[in-house]
Amino acid sequence: MPPTLTSTRRPTDDATAPAAPATPAAPLPYVLRFDAIDLASLPLVGGKNASLGELLRNLTPLGVRVPDGFALTADAFRLHLQEAGLTPGIYEELERLDAHDLPALAATARAIRERIAAAPLPAAVRDALLAAYRELSGAAGAAGAAAIDVAVRSSATAEDLPTASFAGQQESYLNVRGEEALDRAVRDCFASLYTDRAIVYRRERGFRHADVALSVGVQRMVRSDLGSAGVIFTLDPETGFRDVVVVSAAWGLGETVVKGRVRPDEYLVHKPTLAAGYRPILRREVGTKAVKLVYAEGGSRPVREERVADADRRRLVLDDDAVLTLARWAMLIEQHYAARAGRPTPMDIEWARDGRTDELFVVQARPETVHADRAPRFETWHRRGTGPVLVTGQSVGTRVGQGGVRVVHSAAELPAFRPGEVLVAPMTDPDWEPVLKRAAAVVTDEGGRTCHAAIVSRELGIPCVVGTGAATRLLHDGQAVTVSCAEGERGLVYEGRVPFQRTELDPATLPLPRVPLMLNLANPDVAFALARLPAAGVGLMRLEFVISTWIGVHPMAALHPERLHDPAVAAAIHERAGRFATPAAFFVDRLATAIALMAAAFHPRPVIVRFSDFKTNEYAGLLGGEPFEPLEANPMIGFRGASRYYDDRYREAFGLECEAIARVRAMGLGNVKVMIPFCRTVAEARKVLAEMAAHGLERGRDGLEVYLMCEIPNNVVLADQFAPLVDGYSIGSNDLTQLALGVDRDSELLAHVFDERDPGVERLISLAVETAHFAGIPIGICGQAPSDYPEFAEFLADLGIDSISLNPDSLPAVATRLARRMQAPDGAPAPGRPDTRAPVFGT
Question: Which residue among 452, 554, 560, 603 is the active-site one?
Fold first, then answer.
């Protein structure tokens, strides 16, 4: 008889009650209580059960709730196969099997599963199983008395290793009640070690079938069918960014999330500031949550699927307190596993909320394997062409794939799939994994970023767009498409083969230039990926992009939809506001979310957020914008920038921008600085600062720094007078060139005259740098010129500028060039370019 462990812990109605002294129960062969096992027990109980024991023993004292249960050991599985006369025959069959022959794979696997499930459990195994179940039920007396409902989960003995995850390879069964149902579920779990996908996965990962056994976990069910459930990652699953916790949530049992039946809600929490005592929920996104899985009363199936009420679909599943509790638990779990492993260990965690008691529980945890050992290389894809967008959804990963479409509605259609095609399906199933690995890309109607299709696509490194809603209707077999996950959170499926250029580099190989290099960014969706670059921070975050793409509504229209003349426009604004009480609340939330994502990505490096700098014609193009904007002959030098912020026509809207920034800084993200654009006079700067203070952003309070765009000749000429009012300057070379040369920068006719390298422009820049340094404040540049002309970056470095902010794709080349420049004689002109710098005037 195999060695066994027992527990002194007595069952209670509270699944998380602490251990209490008691008379040890008699050991049960083939059964181990969760509180008697830990990660070292993996050979006996598999990865999933070992992890549950580890959690129960070590994390419950810290407040993490874990439902109690027990494990049927791998020895029970081996005895079951042995007494049924199935070994070594099934292993010989599997060794002969060609796993690429899908029909043969399906037939062989099905036959093996049927033989295993049909065989009765060995008497010793069944007796131990039922005795443990009665003890867990709190009724050690007559068979079946007061039986509780349990989850029956498979746990392979090679599961959840640091470099491989067997998640989803075997089956789990929910709402199992009664001894006969438990017996049947255990045999079905044993059989699921030989699903098609599990056979293929083991072979591809180099595991011998005979070396992998199956343990079965039996765990108290959390009544999340009456509540909610979901998945937690302790990193961003797309980019591997490790400073966030990502929580997904849907109504009912968690299988709908794991298997991609729904697009769940999603919440992002920033780890460093959460640990510092703040409440930093960076993002809250409402998913569709169209269906939920609940208990079935009677009948042969223990669970059933039902539609979610419209009101529940539109509202968030979790309140902020629950999100933060789950995030704190996730961090505790991650820290514990990292201490055990001796290295960082991002985690993939399942949670559930009991609808009767409102209690939260962790029901499973495993190391995340996609990013665990991936080299920190920086891969970018740049679209070099365009095409019609056929469908959109959530992007998974950051890559691009191309191929002909193959629409698959069920496993029966998989044999028609050809390598290199784009798999389009309502959702994917674990049984499809042998085919998924051969796909150029995956597109699904349903699911979110934690569904099966997303998890497997990440592991395989293929682009995947989930939650499109209509891909199987709008795409057809043989249609050539390009699937892009390289353009932010929104995944795009283009018609045809759109050209993309791929570049890759190891950020650690970039040299360290003498001038700090920062980034010009607008799209928060790419912030986590770009944070890997060795940048000193974000020198310019443009709010215009966020307002136009994330919000799309004119801020005054959001504040005053009643002033709109067209009822259809007002209705569209209210519809866009969705769950928010007012369109203005929606505007602030979206703006704050975008800023928070950017600030969290680069924390604690500075992120300089420039207040909105639309021109009147651009503002008028926003939803509801036309009634609030004047017509101007030359908007480029009209009612823009600082002039708007204190004007009665825009003052309230500026308040929304200030409110969003204040909200982000209240999360502990004090690395956010603000910048005033297009400020014409010193008096105007004072008015803007007063307006900011009236809206809760007072320079100096809680360390708030205010920068000024230096982009008007008057900013340069009077730099010494602006300096006492601000904490730094940032040169806007585009507008400075336009106004110095008297050239409309948008004019195609005068494009040949527009040149930031003109001696007059360079002289203005030289004066600005020298005056700022004389005044004792830093000055950088965030204009386009150093990104377009690396030699211009050399000119700036020679001036002693404090930072250069670049487009992300320009940073590697500029860093390399400036590093080479350091090796040249000090002050030497840039190679291949005459030294046109003139003496600085006005000092």
Answer: 452
